[in-house]
Amino acid sequence: MSARRHTLRAAALATAVVALAAGCSSANSNHNKNGGSAASGVLNIGKPDGPQTNNSNPFLNTSASATLGYRWMIYEPLAMTSQIRPADKADPWLATDWKWDLNFHKVTFTLDDRAKWADGKPLTAEDVAFTFNLLKKHPALNADGIKWGEVKVEGKKVVLTFDDSQYVNQNKIIQQYIVPKHIWEKVENPETWPNRNPVGSGPYKLKTFTPQTTTLTATPTYWKGSTKVKELRYSTYNDNNAATTALASGKLEWSFVFMPDYKKLFIAKDPKNHKLWFPSGLGIHGLWFNTTRKPFDNPALRKAMAMVIDRNAIYTQAEATLYPEITNPTGIPQPAGKSFLSEEFKNATTKPDVEGAKKILEKAGFTLSGGVLKDPSGKPVKLTLTDPAGWNDYITGLSIIKDNIKKIGIDAKVKTQTADSWNADVANGNFDATLHWTNSGATPYDMYQNIMDGALLQPIGKPSQSGNFGRFKSTEATEALKDFAQAQSDVSRKSAMDSLQKIMVEEAPMVPTAAAPIGAEYSTKNWVGWPTEDDPYADPQHTQRSSLEIVLKLKPAK
Q: How confident is the model at residue 19 (pLDDT cuts 50, 70, 90)?
């Protein structure tokens, strides 16, 4: 897998996590002052990401189109998947049908005859084949790290063939958005092309771009029919406080912002219309250990720490109940991952167990005397917990963890850094323990692979952009990941997934602390039809692919 893909993915995820940092309050003076209005057909969307550079290259996760989320309104996928409903069949989109062979080595797409580009040209199988070959030729654009094989056009069908099973990548492949061959084939270097006049098959085209606000307007000839939302305005704010103020006043109608007191800051400002929903997919946040540093190379110590960390306190105090609580020690978020839980851990709980942790430590040769835990060699156990300054939920989480592990005699201190220096230290293995996120996907594989895969292992000092930041070395975990990815049956996959859960619980390469939300705040004052817990038809966050599904379903409020 290309290191570039993980750098890009990390950057995209960092954008989401940076949104957790609460800074100084300042109004965004460039924001449209009229607010949203269904009568005018305008929907106001935004996030606290700071000024943007004019770049609408949909393949670059660092582009404005990715950061703000508007790439999904211009470029469409072959099929629409859901992270919060990973077991559900994807919705047909540019493809009316797709069929995998039994071992997930080949997939055949049948395209929708109606699909066309915003410039009026038909969208054909040649466009789809061109897109996949573009990803194959340019690793920097291949953010999912797919090892593309042969790409063939057979009439109105496109056939992809792979050397290995693509079971764990199937959603990434079928949800690939497609670009027009007649435009992209003329691009000299697509890896750096800013694509400032994007042409896609989606219902919107770029109208204007400024570092603060990007405006999209509806395409009257959209192949799926007309849209109720005629204009999308994506505004970017300098910090959480500014974005929260815009949400509270109604200037912003759809966002993803971490609020330490959302009931007071947002809901109470308009109880009838101000709503939020923060469901989880199959990614998590957690405490990563540097397993190359003694005594954290000892799984008994890591497991004991996992047993005393109070996830409910992190859920209520650090995450303000916005981020779903982790209730199972496997780390698999519920309910999204319910079908993957092994029988052994189906009823397991994350409720703190200090006495149980002490017994595990004693058995492993640790001694606790006078409130100080000493490792088997007699040295006091100490560690430094690190995260970027300003990432308030993470810093609060570290403070809770520090207090929790004091109960088993571990002396910890919390150190803050700049985001840049922290990123470098995490990648190079220069830390004791740190809160960090994982990848996510259609199964818990992506999460576990990010944490435990020996194929991603780098020596200390060599950047690990791909994952396994804790340098966890386990032949059993690496083999189980490989077995899951290449399994020929559901029984084999279940056996491999059960093994991964057991390693996660027994050896604790990282301690899951919260589920990664795919959440959003929104207003029903001007627009209705949003996804909810009762009607979870799409992932609610506007930076996800299914935000297109949401916009197409929105209707003016009566």
A: very low
1: pLDDT strictly greater than 80: no
Indicate the SS3 state at residue 176.
coil
| Helix intervals (H) in 169-275 | 170-174, 181-184, 240-249, 262-265
Pairing relation of β-strands 254-255 and 520-523?
Answer: antiparallel
Instruction: Count the Cβ atoms, other than its own, within 10 Å of residue 150.
Output: 13
pLDDT tens profile 20-53: 333 332 223 333 334 445 668 999 999 988 889 9
Beta bridge partners of 416: 387
| Residue pointed to by tokens 């400032």 | 196
Q: Parallel, antiparallel, or unpaired: how do β-strands 382-388 and 411-417 relate?
A: parallel
- Pair type for strands 274-277 and 527-528: unpaired
Calculate the dihedral angle through the C-alpha atoms of 381, 382, 386, 390, rounding to the nearest 10 degrees: 120
**393-416: b (≥16 Cβ within 10 Å) or e:** bbbbbbbbbbebbeebbbebebee
Using CA atoms, how far residue 14 sits from 303, 325, 370, 391, in Å, is 27, 20, 41, 11
Helix orientation angle between 490-507 and 299-308, rounded to the nearest 10 degrees? 90
CA distance 115 to 111: 8
Angle, vertex CA 127, rays to CA 123 and CA 128, nearest 5: 105
Q: Decide: helix, strand or coil at residue 384.
A: strand
**Residue whose tokens read 């990432």:** 391
Say what the pTM is: 0.83
